[in-house]
Structure formats: C-alpha cells, structure tokens
Amino acid sequence: MDSDLLWLILAILVGAFCAGNLNRLRQQRKKKLNSLPPGDMGWPLIGCWGNRLDFSSHKFNIGNIWSFLRAFKSQNPESFIDNFKQRYGPAGIYRTNLFWKPSIIVCTPELYRKVLTDDDQFQLGRIEEIVIDAFEEWSEMKRRILFFPEVNKISFKVMMTIFLGSWTDNTVIASMEKYYTYVFAGLFCTPINVPGFAYNRAVKAREMLVKGIQGVLRERKQNGPNSRRGLVDFIREAEDENGEKLDDERVAIILLMFLITGRESSGRTAAWATVYLHDHPQVLQMAKEEQEEIIKRRPSSQKGLTLNEIKQMKYLSKVINETLRIRTNIFTLFREARKDSYLDGYFIPKGWKVLVWQSAVHMDPEIYSNPKQFLPSRWDDFIPKGGAFLPFGAGTRSCIGADLAKLEISIFLHYFILNYRLEQLNPGGPVNYLPSSPDPADNCPAKVIKIP
User: Fold this and answer.
1) What pLDDT score was predicted for residue 182?
2) Does residue 305 belong to any structural domain of this protein?
3) What's the CA gap between 127 and 130, in Å, rounded?
4) Which residues bind heme (predicted)?
5) Fewer Cβ close by (within 10 Å): the C or N end of the chain?
C-alpha cells in the first residue's frame, strides 16, 4: 500500500478519534452545564452575553450586583433572595454572578451545613472595668452619643486588652482604632489601589496599624513581662515543628485578624441587643429580673461577675441568640469550589464562589415563625436543626472568637440592664445593610441615663 495512503488513513482515524473524544467532552460539558442550579448570570457589559455559561465570560459581567445593591439599600434586604425563590422555585440553591464572580447561592440549613462543614482560668475583671468606666462616662455627659460607634470603641479596647494583657495606653488604642476602621472598610470595596480610593486608604492604614502593633511589641520586650499576660505572650512563646517562633510582623497580622473577627461580632451584637431590649419593655424586664436574681445569690464577699454566673444567664442567652438571628453580622459566608463538584445534585464548576446566605436561613418563616419579630421566647426548648442557626459560621472556618464574643456581650448587657437605660433620638429608624453588616443609618444617637 502506498505510504501516502497509509498516512491518509492514519490521519482519518486519528481525526475521527479526536473528533469523537471532542464531541464526547462537549456532551459531558453540556450535561454539566445543564446540571447547574437554576438562576441567571445577570447583566453583561457591552459585547458579552449575561446568560452565557462560558466559565470565562464572568470577567466582563456586571451580573446581579445592581439588584443586590438595590435590595440591600432598601429596608428589605431579604428581597434579593426572595426574587430568586419566586423566579426559580424553592430550590434553596441558585446560580448567579455576584461581585464579578460566577457564584452559587446556598440558603437552606442542610446545604448551609454541608458547605461549611466539608472542610475557669479566665479573668473577667479587666473587661468589666472597661465596660463600667465607659457607661459612667456616657451617663455623665448629659448629652446624646452615637451609640453604635461608642459600643464598638468598647469592644475594640476589650479586644486589645485581651490580646496585650495589662497594657492599656488609651491614646495609642484610639489611634489604632482609627487605622482599624479604615482597614475594615477596605475589606468591602473595589480593590483600586489609587490615592483617593477606600482600598488605597485601607492598605496604608494596615501598614500603620501593623507598625503600631510592632512598636508595642518592641516596648514590651524592652520593659519585660507585664503584670498580667495577654494572648500575645502565648503566641510569641509558641514554636512550630522546627522550633521557630513567629516574628513581630506575623504576630501583628494575627492581632489584626483577631480584631476583625472579635470587634465586629461582639460590638454590633451588644449594641443591637441593647436597642431591642429597650424597644421591648417586657423582654427588658424579664432580662433584668434574671440579672437581679444572679446578684441576690452572690456571696457578699464576691466582687464582679464569674463565668459560672454568666452560664446562669439563660434568658439573656436567648436575647443574644435572637439578636444574632435577626441582625446577622454578615449577609453571606464565602467559599470557593476547589474542583468540579456536585451539591444537592447540581453541578458546581471549579473556581465558582459558593455563597452561604445566612440571612436567608435566619429569616426563613419555615424555620422561624414571624421571623422579623424580636422574640427571645422562640428559643424556649427550641433546638434549631443543623445549619439553621450558625451566626459564627461552621467547620474549620467557624469564628474562633465566638465564645469570647458571647462572653463580652453578656458582661456588657449585665451591667447596662441593671444600671442604665437607653433613650434613643430616632427609635425604629432606617438601617444600612452595606457595606458589611446592618447598622442604624444614623448610628443611633441616644442618651445613656443612669438608673437611680
């Protein structure tokens, strides 16, 4: 047989094999795409198709960001998810393009848990001192304060004290809090590192914050150990498997992460719980009676709270849970598919974001009747099914400071309920749900009045 003919036959066979494989791959790809969850990819920029399911097309896709912003700038952020439910049914899992990334939104307890879980030595005295001093200062002002920012200042100082021990230079703490505020704001903005933009200000503030913390650490080394050790001392003494210790820059970064997870959850929740209690006098009275009973049982020689007493605050714990449910600190938890996978029978392409939409679960009327009402009593003998109440996340990415946050909130509410009342200027005012978490649009101007 002619050699040219042999090469022609071989080329035809190879071509047929490749074409068959290519067709098979196309069919597999088409099958996977048809297995994506229901939803849409939103609006495209010029020259791109918004509903196109090419995995690379998202780079130029506005997606559903406008409908997201519209919902979260209204007083009904749940409308964003409700729209998906109305259009695509109660699947509890939807595809979209959000924050310029193809994403899967998860909003049922079962899927929530699956996504997230694939992966008496404590001194209370210093925390109590910080809280009590702040309350006294507020009440003596005889004027309104911006309640939410002031509570956040308390939380920041508590976090710094826990981390650094007895070191409490108020001037330096105030400076660090300013830088921290810029850093936190930068987490939720477009990463444009150009002067004048929030992200650029956050980058510079992070550098200043790390330098400030490093300066404190150097001072501690020079002056020797403090009278009361902090978390930083244990971190600096820890060694890895090679016997090496963390340098000051890494310790400073750990502190920054500690502040982000602790300050936001405890400060915001304590402030909202205080507002809800004063908006619901009967609930406030029940919480106050519980705290008074704890004081009555206390030995006359005891000064201050104990962990055992905090464990006795059963009703207050329900108040905190209900506050965390309604005012979830973040609207979603971000995950990413490391490989092509399936979730509840739907195809999830590698690299797509998976957004665990906490508020959709926490405000689901099938789980919590009258979800928009503040009802601590709903927690009487109520144990939510797995994934239905996870305000601090779950699995390996759960908030490591959850117990500390609840401890701080309990101390704050204990002293405020017993000794002070909140007089709001604009009760029931509008709420900002962006950039990160729900806050009163006016930061809650109010007077703190000491109870005679």
Assistant:
1) 83
2) yes
3) 5
4) 399
5) C
